Amino acid sequence: MKRILAIYICFGVCSSFLFNNGPLEVYVTCGDGSKKLSPEPSLNSGSGSGTRINVDRSKRYQTMDGFGAALTNSAAYVIYHSPRRHEIMRSLFGWNGIGISYVRLTMGGSDFQAVNAYTYDDLPDNNQNDFGMNRFSIDKDKAFVIPILKEALTLNPKLKVMATPWSAPAWMKNNKNLFGGDFNSGSQYQEAYASYFVKFIQAYASEGIKIEAITVQNEPLHKSDSYPTMGMSWQLERDFIKYHLGPKFRSNGINTKILIFDHNWDLKDYPEHIMSDSSAAQYIDGSAWHCYGGRHDTPESFHNKFPSKNIYFTECSGGDWDTNYYDGIVWNFRILMIGQPRSWAKSVLLFNLALDDNHGPRQGVSGCKDCRGVLTVHGDGSFTKNFEYMYIGHMSKVVQPGAVRVDSSWLGWDSLQSVAFENPDRSVAAVVLNPTASDQQIHVDIDGTSYPYNLKAHCVASFLKRH
């Protein structure tokens, strides 16, 4: 009996010891291009001098939904029509690729269109109306958008899908046009638009695609006559949710999350006004944010005001303006991949999953002319993994959906920065950025075990300690 008890005690202690001292997997990307999401030899525990990156899983923050990018019409088109489509999809969504865990779907037309912009209830005459949604159809999405989503879900069944409209149907707007204009505030239009969202979610569900969340309007304070956009004041978005969308979701048993805002950090008054109305807030899961203006830590102060509501980072585009890999790594990790989770974001999403050599296609629209996709799909069938592929991969390869952000060292704006997570399987992921011009000897400390590593200048490393 004593021998059995001794073996039992040893098993508990020894298994804990073996877990605590197990090797640390490493992936590295460097600003000189020498390493691009490159796997390194696993690290063993050790001692010595160096800067401590302490991971404390006892201090817990938000649960993560995932990392990824937007499936625009253009992105779906170039992937679907590539002769290397399945290889591209495995690179994006497969576990031997970067395992993207969240995509943002454009509901109809946006600034990246391979076909003319459309919605799901277009009329031959925009002076007519269809309050009963009798002409509603997602058939145009079935050409290549839905097939790409279905393939992505086959590769990663845990993939989450968020959906966002750039515009309501033109007949619902004051200018009767998909481009520019404002949403018609009349009660009939609001009720019809709430039904539009319900029908969209139900139609996608019938295709086997669950819509995890919707945002009410992409960039509601931006209007353009060059591509689908729509103005929507905070008062109108608040009332639409409070009196129409929220009750409509509830009465139809829709549990898709409702997110507000979906615009830039510097426009924070907009979501604050909406969230301060308790009758609207009861239906709202959280707020969505873009990178094109303001301070990147604004969502943290927003979280402090509304701690029960979630934060999502939903758009930031790469582009040809970002040609310096050194600067790109530092900015994207300091501001986005590390900065947004540290500011309470549950997701970090870039813009187009893929574009062609000409930053498109852009059929009938004229938005960003030098935006870059996560991948560039070339006319000869080949494809290039851009900087953004590495940025997402450093997170999605080691952070599982459902991971909880835990405490980790942040040593200053111009010094080493990190973010860390405990995955559902109890493995631990840590991502560390060295923004300095000199190599840094670091020790990643997890569960009382220290792992020494020399992190080169302008490099980022992702560490994974398996359970």
UniProtKB/TrEMBL annotation:
It comes from the Eukaryota. It is an enzyme of class 3 (hydrolase). Residues 402-463 form the Glycosyl hydrolase family 30 beta sandwich domain. Keywords: Glycosidase, Hydrolase, Lipid metabolism, Signal, Sphingolipid metabolism. Residues 1-16 form the signal peptide. GO terms for molecular function: glucosylceramidase activity. It catalyses: a beta-D-glucosyl-(1<->1')-N-acylsphing-4-enine + H2O = an N-acylsphing-4-enine + D-glucose. GO terms for cellular component: membrane. GO terms for biological process: glucosylceramide catabolic process. It holds the Pfam family Glyco_hydro_30. Its EC number is 3.2.1.45. This is Glucosylceramidase.
